[in-house]
User: Fold this.
Amino acid sequence: MKIAEPNLLTLDYWRDEVSYQGITLPSGSIGCAALNISDDVIEKLKQISQPLRAVIEAVGKKKLKLELLTPCRESILQMLELLQKENAFPLLDYSYYLKRIPEIFTEENMKKAEAYVKLAAMNLPAAMNDQLKSGLGLTKVIAICAQLPDSLVMFKEGLLPLAKALHESDRAPVDYATVFGEYFPESPEFSLTDPG
Assistant:
């Protein structure tokens, strides 16, 4: 069963617009939706995503077991249900993803994910064979969903001070450029401790 389908990869930025699932919006629309997700909801997402985080940790230690993968399906479904209830990303086709997650989290695909991680840990080319593609896809779905709560926190922590500074500026192009320069230097230094 295919995990990656073209309709999963529909986010496209062009100039000042973003296209998502056939809808074109101003480029900041999805970011605004993310900013509107409350800290309480993000905290709930962190709790729900614990089985996913356990898988990521196990993959890092090269000790992934099938029993760690089993609760991931329910974890992702709970995350989707919470986001849908909170109307967090109103353009997301929740019904599609709520249907797809059980379809891709089959025992066969989870076994392939376990096999893929074992072979990849040994740097064996066999990890990339076609028979394990659904296992690779499953690990990617888990990684993306596990990252979501922390990504939302980092996004809000980095963007809200910038937005406030922009709002408090004189709203002239030169002032906007100055504020952007303070938050996004010409030669940025990347650090895991600086969410901006």
About this structure: The longest strand covers residues 17-20. Residues 38-153 form one domain. Residues 7 and 96 are 10 Å apart (CA to CA). DSSP finds nine helices and three strands in the chain.
